[in-house]
Amino acid sequence: DTVAVIGLGYIGLPTAAVLAQAGKTVIGVDIKQSNVDAINAGQVPFVEEGLETVVAGCVAQGKLSAQTETPEADAYIVSVPTPFKGDHDADLSYIEAAAKGIAPKLSGGELVVLESTSPPGATEFMADVILGIRPEFTKEPNLPNSLYFSHAPERVLPGRIMIEMVENDRIIGGLSQEAGELNRDLYASFCRGELLVTDARTAEMAKLTENAFRDVNIAFANELSIIAERQGIDVWELIELANHHPRVNILQPGPGVGGHCIAVDPWFIVSSDREYSNLIRTAREVNDSKPEIVLSKVLEKADKLKSPVVAALGIAFKANIDDLRESPSKDIAVALTDRLDHGTVLVVEPNIEELPQEFAGKSNVELAKLEDAVERADIVLLMVDHDPFKTFDREKLQEKVVIDTKGLWR
Ligand code: SAJ
């Protein structure tokens, strides 16, 4: 019962850990030697609540280890990045590289699961890469030379991964019925949620659909926020009132949509059918236009001041995390340092110790504490609904120009 997990990032490592915890012998594979060394020492190279305890325990028991070479195993789980290339197409080269590593190790009967978020057809692509190298095998089931290919997209929320990995329902899409069932049986070892078996293309599309659904709904809120402001209407009151209708449930507007899922996945639907994906593409464009709108508003206020000081509250991509990747609020803060004439930006981000490299070499920005930044600021720009901002004493904002993109201080 050996499982190899290829790619030990935010999804691969927790998956390896819960499989090892469930009694499997798990060998993790990562191209980065420093990650491999850390994991073999029972450490986790990133922050995720509850993960390190499980990793340390499983490594100590000899159930989990890491290496850079793909090993022989009974099942393989591919959890590698699928970034963009060209005009928002999915770059499948990491999947291809993983498949090339797996191919020489196969002897027949193995299950190969693709976990990476992928456009429709990616599981078939992975199978074709492997079968291209090993033409003696087939994806037809129940033969001595059968291989079993399946897609099991993850749906865990960063910060709650160790809980959601076990509790959430999973969609599982086999290239054959048998492949889906093998995948289901493997995941039943650690997953208490429902395991819903379908075909690979439907599973691929389901994952993209979930995140596109959220993106379209946030875009609706963001578009409303732009229109409402021009009409002199408080968008948060508007949404709250509309949501009293039993069949209306509008999400919250903000400075844009960040993270590496919701701002990315809808593009994979668009790139798979550019002709008929107008709504999904437009939603992406509406959400991506929001940072520039926030920025113009700040610059308009700043223009009236001689040497404006802007307190930028929050640069993470959402509340109460330290993740700055694909963060619209970080982009706004960086753009402010470039476009604010004779001004200073005071970044307040309670979840980090130092400014990220995007601010390197800039003399008009510093990382500041909340109280201090607000006191020194002419303009207070709230961009993330971190807990310490929620409880901030609003008396201290009275003399300030306040731009509240989250409606936290209404
Ligand atoms: N946001 C808004 N308004 C809202 C809700 C969110 O502006 O009403 C913004 C957030 O501030 C953030 C972005 O959207 O910038 C995304 O945040 P999120 O909490 O909605 O989602 P993620 O990106 O952390 O995780 C999502 C989840 N997908 C869904 O909820 C459908 C998670 O379950 C997925 O596993 C994850 O993407 C993924 O890996 O695909």
Automatic annotation (TrEMBL):
GO terms for molecular function: UDP-N-acetyl-D-mannosamine dehydrogenase activity. Keywords: NAD, Oxidoreductase. It is an enzyme of class 1 (oxidoreductase). InterPro entries: 6-PGluconate_DH-like_C_sf (IPR008927), NAD(P)-bd_dom_sf (IPR036291), UDP-Glc/GDP-Man (IPR017476), UDP-Glc/GDP-Man_DH_C (IPR014027), UDP-Glc/GDP-Man_DH_C_sf (IPR036220), UDP-Glc/GDP-Man_DH_dimer (IPR014026), UDP-Glc/GDP-Man_DH_N (IPR001732), UDP_ManNAc/GlcNAc_DH (IPR028359). Its EC number is 1.1.1.336. SUPFAM superfamilies: 6-phosphogluconate dehydrogenase C-terminal domain-like (SSF48179), NAD(P)-binding Rossmann-fold domains (SSF51735), UDP-glucose/GDP-mannose dehydrogenase C-terminal domain (SSF52413). Residues 311-410 form the UDP-glucose/GDP-mannose dehydrogenase C-terminal domain. It comes from the Bacteria. The keyword Oxidoreductase applies. Belongs to the UDP-glucose/GDP-mannose dehydrogenase family. This is UDP-N-acetyl-D-mannosamine dehydrogenase. It comes from Brachybacterium rhamnosum.
